[in-house]
Amino acid sequence: MSELSNSPQLPVSYSESELVSENAAENNGKSLPGINSSLIAVFRELDNAGSPWVLLRGELDLVRPAGDVDLLVSPDLLARLDGLLAGVGFRRVIALGHGSHRFYFRYLAGEDLWLKLDIVSDISFGYFQELGTDLASGCLQRRTALGPLWLPQAQDQAWLQILHLVLDKGEVASSRVPAARSAAALASGADPVAAYLDRTLGDGTAEELLGVLQSGSFDEVPAKAAALKRIWTGTRVPPWLVSSTSRALRRVGPRLKGRGPVVGALAPDGAGKTTLLHGLRSGCPLPSAYVYMGLWSSSPQDRWLQKIRGGFLVRKVFRILRAGLAARYHSLRGRVVLMDRLAFDALLPGSQARSRLGALTDAFALRFQPRPDLVLVLDAPGELMFARKGEHSPQILEGWRNAYLELAEDIPSAYILDAGESASTVRLKATELLWNVLAGTKAVEEADTERLPLHLWMLLDWRFLLPVVRPEKLGYGGRVSDDAATAMLLLDPSAQRLEPADGQAPSREFDVVLLSEPDKPLFGAAVESLKPGGWMCVQVRRSFRFGTGPHTLAGWKHAMERAGFDDPAVYWHVPTLERPARFVPTASRTAVSDTLSHYSRVRFGKAKAAIGRLALNLGLFNVAAAEGTVVGQRAREAGRQELP
Length: 644
Known about the structure:
The chain has 644 residues and is of the alpha/beta class. It folds into 4 domains: 14-152, Beta Polymerase, domain 2 (2-Layer Sandwich); 153-234, no CATH class; 258-443, P-loop containing nucleotide triphosphate hydrolases (Rossmann fold), CATH 3.40.50.300; 455-586 and 625-634, 3-Layer(aba) Sandwich (Rossmann fold). It is built from 24 helices and 22 strands. Strand 4 and strand 5 (113-120) form a beta hairpin. The N and C termini lie far apart (76 Å).
């Protein structure tokens, strides 16, 4: 018998020959099974907790488990179990009406695999775990070791398999006949579990049950199971009461611990929003709910609504309330909420309401929808979306595509997925993002030039402002997004992030440096780290916050001149800093005027264009421009002035 005090500490790695030779005698010569590394982390954590546990079954199916990983733990571990398993990446799903069962999940993106732990603290049988026993403590005391695993004693495991087939399943299906024969051959009437059956159900019960299985009379098992359930004793609560209570509790349904995350999908028609969300729901074992929030979609009632004044507006308000309340309800119930479309559609160019009431309902929709934890923006060419659905035209869809990409820049939780890839690939990436939200982690993607989405290539457009298209040594710093940092690895796999100097003079090693909204200390460190003759791009927004450095494009141009850069050039980003459709050199009045003439197409465009023309005529456009890039080459000789 293996006592808890003699439990071996799990090493970082295991030698199969050592483990088999050490434990083969206790485990009938079993060889060490393959085990998924995430499960090894679970077993190590349970061992370190100092309480006994066993893997009830399935020790040969732990590399990529086809079903649940069933574990029995000591009751004194339950209070710490959620925290222990959260530390190795598992999230609990609460399911009432399942006895002592606790369910934990983890998603492994690299394997596209969901792991599910089914952990119990007692041994009960029946569909509602209504047939209780006191076998758990004895099984834990008699456990045996196999490498990093603790297993029930062979005879205990055989009897637990028999009772699982007879009492839980109520029959021995043809696919389970080999398992039933093996268990019956190993078990005997002298085993501890057999003694328990005889003690609680009457002498000879165990031998009679073994006789049915050993003789191969599997058609008699249903009647035998029903007879055992009728006479089952030994539980403080009658089995019928446990069944009734559990049946009622299961109607509540499973739920995540805490609020369920809200995931929304945005894209034009044909990008695959509905396909993705239904794929997520079918492939994700967590409790989830699908909510459609199409505020403007047509319906068969349109011909009647158009005859009623304000009919479409009333329907829009109804849809806002219905979708918003449904999403909030499911989130509070601990379900993953998958929202097809979001109220953010109201922010797209051309979607703004033309009436005051319409604008109020748009604002109401934006306020009433729950804040999404993750927004999946599907990016696909207009031609592809048209080929998929045949609606609108490729040109219209391409325009909407660009509008959604621009909108994504203003949504903190947005993530752009390349919808031109296969549906399974998009689902896999979306599942990883969803799990990162659930687990509270952030995905780190490796740069892959063959499958890098178009929007990441667009984050490198600043390189065309330089004569050096592919730098030898690239540095970057400031508010550089994870996507932009990933994209820069394409230019230089050893690209480094710069931090403000800590008192030591930085080495002059970079020939190109990109800064995004830097402060004075970071700018100074970047200047010192740049080789003479090297190039610097500074992406900035107009800001009036005290102490952050220069506040305008003009201010940053002067700062670079004082730092020893030759004739810095200023480029206005249109429409945004992160996703410019064009770089406009502010030194060219013609280019700026032409751009302003097209500004009437955007929100408040006419007012912005008027202000821009006034600033241009006054020679203050570099002060008025909201965002852009200042580019300069560091002087090749000494004589640089320090940044004040």
